[in-house]
Design brief:
There is one protein chain. Helix content is 45%, strand content 14%. The protein has 325 residues and is an alpha/beta fold. It folds into two domains: 194 residues, Rossmann fold (3-Layer(aba) Sandwich), CATH 3.40.50.720; 100 residues, UDP-galactose 4-epimerase, domain 1. The strands form four sheets. The protein has a six-stranded parallel beta sheet, with helices on both faces. It binds 2-amino-3-ketobutyric acid (AKB). 2-amino-3-ketobutyric acid binds next to loops.
Length: 325
């Protein structure tokens, strides 16, 4: 990777990936794009930024040519809960954007990164230590777009030789940018509420396990996979990756280690609970370990400490004093 264009750079992954890539590859070699402009946003201020609607093929092609990029990272997409509220739009955006990214990459011979998700699995999938290659019959529109996307990526590699790579992300937890409309978002919201109110009402029910990962590990994984020796890659696309699997009581217990008076309660959202119930409890990431040395660094307590420290600074709420109170 020498010159990289990112779509959806103002999203949860994009904002941190853009920053990391600029540090690693030089700000002049990372072109950040998004459909919206946010005045004063550090991603926009920190280097080249262009407005891009990923549904506009000519615009995507034009920008990749203009900046002579060799790598495209296509992050713009709708997440699971929003996808259920707007299924037709989720299909149009997720599949339309992906097709454009694949076609642009084929035409310009670009390396391409495409995120999939644990949402690519469904109720018929083995729920514990879900294998890399297994039944995939998701029941959400987001999941349908993710499985279709995985197949399309494999097709473009086999048919046209497009160097497209990707992972199945679990829920991603970060303090810089909020996720937008996912099922795993409770595991981000809980940290904000722990600092602000010392309590949290979870929309995901007690005992619901889902895979999760802290954002620095997710960013490392993207870069590691894109830089991996292609001769080692047996899968290329849709690698299972995960750093931990927990249910709401366990993240609450981790927060209590730092904020002892923290309390969790429940007001389950049937839509998001239904989505969570259709996803695995835990997935097996051994293919990613074997083929490109995937090795996440953060477990639940280490992530909790880092989240609370950084959010406490961001929100101006000291948590150490709370912990000692
Ligand atoms: C969501 O909850 O929709 C996402 C995902 C697991 O893909 N975080």
């Amino acid at each position: 990777m020498k010159k990289i264009l990112i779509t959806g750079c103002l999203g949860q992954i994009g904002s941190e990936l853009t920053h990391r890539l600029r540090v690693m590859y030089g700000a002049e070699n990372v072109i950040a794009t998004d459909i919206r402009h946010i005045e004063g946003n550090p991603v926009i201020e920190g280097g080249t930024f262009e407005i891009l609607d990923v549904m506009d093929y000519e615009a995507m092609l034009g920008l990749c040519k203009k900046y002579e990029v060799d790598t495209l990272m296509h992050l713009a997409a709708l997440l699971s809960a929003v996808g259920e509220a707007k299924p037709k739009f989720a299909w149009d955006l997720n599949m339309g954007g992906l097709m454009n990214a694949l076609e642009v990459s084929r035409e310009l011979n670009l390396k391409l990164f495409i995120p999939s998700s644990i949402a690519a699995f469904g109720p018929g999938t083995p729920v514990d230590m879900t294998p890399q290659d297994t039944v995939q019959r998701p029941t959400t529109m987001y999941g349908v777009t993710k499985v279709s996307g995985e197949l399309l990526c494999d097709y473009y590699f086999t048919k046209y030789g497009v160097d497209v790579r990707g992972v199945r992300f679990p829920g991603l937890i970060s303090y810089k940018t909020l996720p937008g409309g996912g099922t795993t978002d409770y595991a981000v919201d809980i940290y904000y509420e722990a600092l602000k109110n010392k309590k949290y009402t979870s929309f995901i029910g007690k005992g619901t396990y889902m895979d999760m990962m802290y954002m620095p590990d997710a960013i490392d994984a993207i870069i590691q996979l894109m830089e991996a020796d292609p001769s080692r890659l047996k899968h290329r696309n849709a690698f299972n990756i995960t750093a931990m699997s927990f249910e709401p009581e366990q993240i609450a217990a981790s927060i209590k280690k730092f904020i002892p008076e923290f309390e969790i309660s429940y007001n389950v959202d049937p839509v998001r609970q239904g989505i969570a119930n259709s996803w695995p409890n835990s997935i097996d990431a051994s293919a990613a370990h074997e083929e490109w040395d995937f090795n996440p660094q953060y477990d639940l307590d280490r992530m909790t400490k880092d989240m609370l420290e950084n959010l406490s600074e961001k929100l101006g709420i000291p948590f150490r004093e709370l912990a000692l109170a």
